[in-house]
Specification:
Strand content: 15-25%
Order of helices and strands: EHEHEHEHEHEHEHEHEHEHEHEEHHHHH
Number of helices: 16
Number of strands: 13
CATH class of the largest domain: Alpha Beta
CATH architecture of the largest domain: 3-Layer(aba) Sandwich
Structural class: alpha/beta
CATH topology of the largest domain: Rossmann fold
CATH superfamily of the largest domain: Glycogen Phosphorylase B
Strand order of the largest sheet: 3-2-1-4-5-6-7
Helix content: 40-55%
Oligomer: single chain
């Protein structure tokens, strides 16, 4: 008899953004003798699909968004639920567009429905469309009731406020840390020299950023402050890691400011842990974030970091991270000041003690998956897994 608790994770994406990284990391570390993950995606393909399928995971490809064809979306999602017979549907979201998936899961009799908030804003480039999405989000949130799901999770207090407001009792909301493998990011001088040689930046002052080229990440501000920095620190280079729809626009901005030869577009990389070693300072001027995994990784690497005051201060886990207003001259001044204050980077990471080690956090997730409504409805199976 298969006593595994079956969990449907929705959605994941080919871009491997924050939500997908979070879900895949949980699958990597969860007790696979007790839990089974399946995944639903709106992406046409996933370049990591074969790895999941080797683990016995099913991947459900949904052909359209509910906003495009509600009837077709409903039919496809219902079929996934009927065939999967899931114990848990774990819904990862950045904003409200409807309660459609939650209601479909309830109608299918799913014992445990988790709504998990991962953001504090809406990442749409076009201003008119973004404003329309904000208005829709606020309207749907006003209609939110506590019976829409069995569990409410968030990556930070601000993310909880953004998605749930005062509609969900605070004692029903669980803050779940975005955890990492701290040991992967511990500072290594040999790796630093290796990466700096790879990019031919051995004698340069390296300003770094990791993130999608998207509205949320505010690359335009970063390019402006870097252009000002170059006037005062000729040896500076900017290392940008990531890809996205605004990449060409960011490159054009750098060209217009005549600094394109000092900006390295590294593209999507799977070795961010290595690249962080090569940087001298990290800048993260996002318009909004939930609880950015990137900044947890940066702190694990003991890299000095500047981040925007629009992001929750819950992210401050060490004494090398500084929260600033989005004012150009303030960022330039702080970068220059930090560049003069040499500090030997530590090989020891504080993330485990702070509750951001995935090995510890996954135990909390397993406990929550087994608890509450699921335990009451299927106690025999849960007992077998306890």
């Amino acid at each position: 008899m298969n006593n595994k608790i079956k969990v449907l994770q929705f959605p994941i994406a080919a871009s491997k953004g924050g939500i997908t990284r979070y879900v895949l990391k949980n699958w990597q570390y969860i007790d696979k003798s007790r839990f089974q993950f399946d995944f639903a995606t709106m992406s046409r393909t996933l370049d990591f699909a074969s790895e999941l399928e080797k683990d016995g995971c099913r991947i459900h490809y949904i052909s359209c968004y509910a906003e495009e064809n509600a009837e077709k979306f409903d039919a496809e999602f219902k079929e996934i639920l009927e065939n999967g017979k899931y114990d848990i549907v774990h819904l990862h979201t950045k904003q409200w567009k409807s309660f459609r998936v939650e209601k479909l899961a309830k109608e299918a009799g799913v014992p445990k429905i988790i709504v998990h908030s991962h953001s504090t804003g809406i990442d749409t480039v076009d201003e008119k469309k973004r404003q329309a999405e904000i208005e829709l989000h606020c309207k749907i949130k006003d209609e939110l009731t506590e019976d829409i799901a069995t569990d409410f999770w968030a990556c930070s207090r601000l993310a909880a406020s953004f998605l749930f407001g005062d509609k969900i009792s605070s004692d029903r909301i669980k803050i779940m840390n975005n955890a990492i493998e701290p040991e992967r990011y511990c500072y290594d001088e040999d790796v630093r020299q290796e990466v700096r040689k790879e990019f031919e930046i051995e004698d340069r002052f390296v300003v770094g950023h990791v993130g999608r080229f998207a509205y949320q990440k505010n690359h335009m501000f970063l390019i402006k402050i870097f252009a000002e920095l170059c006037k005062k620190k000729k040896e500076a280079v900017l290392l940008l890691v990531g890809d996205g729809e605004l990449r060409s626009a960011v490159y054009q901005q750098a060209a217009d400011l005549h600094i394109e030869n000092k900006v390295i577009f590294a593209g999507k990389r799977d070795d961010v842990d290595r690249l962080l070693q090569a940087m001298d300072i990290f800048c993260f001027p996002s318009w909004f974030e939930g609880m950015p995994i990137t900044l947890i990784e940066v702190q694990a690497a003991d890299l000095a970091c500047l981040y925007s005051e629009t992001i929750t201060d819950e992210i401050e886990l060490t004494d090398r991270i500084y929260r600033l207003p989005l004012q150009q001259e303030v960022w330039v001044r702080n970068i220059l000041n930090l560049s003069k204050e040499y500090k030997r980077r530590s090989r020891m990471s504080e993330m485990s003690q702070k509750g951001y080690s995935i090995r510890e956090q996954i135990k909390n997730i397993e406990k929550e998956y087994r608890g509450g409504a699921l335990y009451r409805l299927i106690p025999n199976r849960i007992g077998a897994c306890a």
